[in-house]
Amino acid sequence: METLMFKGMIHxxxxxxxxxILLVMLILPHMIPRFYVYLIASILVMALLAMSLxxxxxxxxxxxFHHGVFFGVGAYAVALLLTKTTxxxxxxFISAPFVAALAGLIIGLICIRxxxxxxxxxxxxxxxxxxxxxxxxxxxxxxDDGIHGIPMPAAVSGVSNSYYFILIIFVLCIIALFFILxxxxxSTLQAARDNAQRCEAIGVFVKRHQLFxxxxxxxxxxxxxxxxxxxxxxxxxxxxxxxxSLEILIMxxxxxxxxxxxxxxGAALMLSLxxxxxxHTEYWTLILGIIxxxxxxFLPQGVWGYxxxxxxxxKEAVAERER
Amino acid sequence: xxxxxxxxxxxxxxxxxxGLSRSMIxxxxxxxxxxxxxxxxxxxxxHGSLYMIGAFAAYTVNTVIGGAAGFWLSLIxxxxxxxxxSLIAERALFCHLYEREHLMLLLFTFALMLxxxxxxKLFWGVDYKSVTAPNVLKGALMIFGLxxxxxxxxxxxxxxxxxxxxxxxxxxxxxxxxxxxxxVDRMMVGALGINVSWVFxxxxxxxxxxxxxxxxxxxxxxxxxxxxxxxxxxxxFLIVVIGGLGNIWGALVGALIFGITHSVGVxxxxxxxxxxPYLAVVIVLIIWPRGLLKSVW
Lengths: 323, 297
Hints:
A: 323 residues, mainly alpha, 76% helix, B: globular
């Protein structure tokens, strides 16, 4: 049954490579300095966030411009639950993504009536509302200082422990996202992106599917928010600001919209760029901006998308020769 | 409500006037953004950066020339500098990208925002800058027996002037009329033998000029600092959307809603004043999803 499920979904070679990568990542903390472990952990958090966004942007075709809000709501939810309540810690961790999903439901319900740029704009204004609330409500959210020094259970505190926790959750989420995309629901979402009218005509309730897409995406963004808190131990209003949302969008673009793994690569590229250029110069956004502009000019399908296309062409050429 | 107990009628009127004068700056910036959105269909996130550059350029003009002359000159030179910058950007970059998807254009202008933001850091440094208004505009006038800053009065005068000028441009000049037509059907305008590319360029430069003007006007009222582009661009976008994309009068209506709800917020709940405009935007968009006035899209 197991093999049957995977049949046709993942190539055998790819599966082997993935297992190899996973094994390397498991022993990594024992081999490299702590700084790099931290960097990889933060890449995993951002990668999960970017992939959750890509579910609605790349595969759903929605202009989800303020995805950062769900990330921030997840992070704030777990931070507030941990600091303000005496609930068991695991309940705090589990309930935060559901809070984010609830935010996704509310914001999604309002946005979904509109399309394209209007969808984006109403989402940004709703998101800004949440941001402004977190930014100003000093008594509850700590205002623009945020909340720092959030107490963590011993099992996930420290760079190495939190790395393993993040890795495990990340892998689980990626598998879940993969199956969601391969499920009938995922196919319908993509069909609605490509031709919403035809989908409606064959009896698919497009808007409802898209709303579900938003809720699922915000759930996973909430998970990423929890992981962020696990890693950093703090939250601040910048997590809810629109600049972060555009950065995630750019990660998706950088890696490639229409690929599954693209956003992961985009996140890795962006965070590595920021870290390594940031060491040498304080003007790293200048360099990032130039790279981005060049990419949009010459490589609009993204890095991963570009390579996929190349591979496909080569494969076709090989097949042609064999024939 | 307890407004009446803490605020008398004059205070309320004055607070609304302050909100109105803030609306004027928002209108000038949003009108530029709206013009670009309407004619070129480019959601220009770098508009906020141009506003910031306008403010910094105004600071430079003020320090180099100094005095009242410096201030008045900065209102002309700073926007012109921004316009020049945008002319270069349009001819070198944007004119190759008009056919791309909106999402791509948006991300491209975001890249531009990152670049321009760091350029400002490179040229002007990270310190706070400030500009002082000339003596004529300093101090306060007495209105309803309460002090009202003269500079805000000046803004209340300049806003309608700019709006009138923009109206003259769009509906009375040839190029304005062409740009209006191009925003409806650019293929047809091109087919009539009009060089659409230059029309677009003109509209873009004028829009950016307005962003620079907004920056120069705002310079004496607040600290000029890095990051001032981040909030203004969001506000300008929301104003444009609630007014109707590409509609300049919509930008005026949106700016008025934004400024006045903010000053109402200041009276009701000072701590959460910035939430009120966003709330107003959400309410407007829920009731009128396509904006209050007719959109050209």
